Amino acid sequence: MKAIFTLLFLSVSLMAFNIEKVDVLEYKVANGKTALILFESQEGIELLSVRVGKKRFEIFPMPNSEEKKYALIPFSYYAKTENKTLFINYKENEKLKKESLLLKVVKGEYAKEEIHVSSSKVNPKSAAVKKRVSQEYSQAMKIYGTVTPKSYLTKPFIFPLESKITSAFGKARVYNGSLKGYHSGTDYRASVGTPIKAANDARVALVKKRFYSGGTVLLDHGEGIYTCYFHMSAFNVKEGDFVKRGEILGLSGKSGRVTGPHLHFSARINSVQVDPLQLIDIMNKNLLTGK
Ligand SMILES: [Zn+2]
Question: Could you report the per-residue pLDDT of 110-146, keeping only the tens digit for each?
Fold first, then answer.
């Protein structure tokens, strides 16, 4: 394979190499973060996908560029600290080929939150609530698992509001000494009624009042990228609408399972929940340059 491609992780550095000369390369990515691989197209080579374990991630043309291509590889918060082999599938002169890359998954530096409660107070849910929660979960996973084959993105992402971050992505929640979950998004301080903006151009995939996340808007940015807006008090959009970056999706609130008003903002890549701010950072620095 003669294509020179560039590998970017956590947007720290930009390295170019010729894969013919090096068999194995080591790069790092933390659990809960997204790795971005940039490829330079070359004649005679058709880049297809990147496979990690049983998961396959498509290689897409870069927004605003005909020659370059990219793939986003999301790593779950629960991804094991280990070496992962990424297989890059491509066609050269109509023959299917692959190259491998070694990627090290390292432990992200996330804060921990210790919560001590009497065990009877953890999850006292009725059968009806359990059913509702499970239906809402299946519906959301079906949406996140849908990779729209085109991108709606042409401009850098913006934040859904300008406000203080009150809880970062990844904070571990330890109940009575055992890890019971982690904070799956970024919380912004927002009194009830604060306008919430679309972080980028998208199709509105879901508008719904849900049990845990309350007033919920899910945006499909195409190519497997979704952003999510939780606990809202009012909606300004409906499912199937196309929204532009900065368009008001609705108003923030305190709906669902919350202790106070705020916006919970999160992101998914091919169903995997990832740090939304790191995703925006790597996308804006490397893919969506310009304005
Ligand atoms: Zn939150």
Answer: 998 887 766 554 566 789 999 999 999 999 999 999 9
Instruction: Give the C-alpha separation, 6 to 30, whole Å.
Output: 19
Tell how far the Cα of 184 is from the centroid of ligand 1, in angstroms.
7
Domains assigned to the chain: 4-106 (2.60.40.10), 112-286 (2.70.70.10)
Dihedral pair phi/psi, residue 60, rounded to 5°:
-110, 155
Per-residue pLDDT reduced to its tens digit, 4-22: 444 443 332 233 333 332 3
CA of 213 to the centre of ligand 1 (A): 9
* Gap from CA of 187 to ligand 1 centroid (Å): 5
Residue 2, class by beta-carbon neighbours within 10 Å (0-12 exposed, 13-18 middle, 19+ buried)?
exposed
CA of 216 to the centre of ligand 1 (A): 12
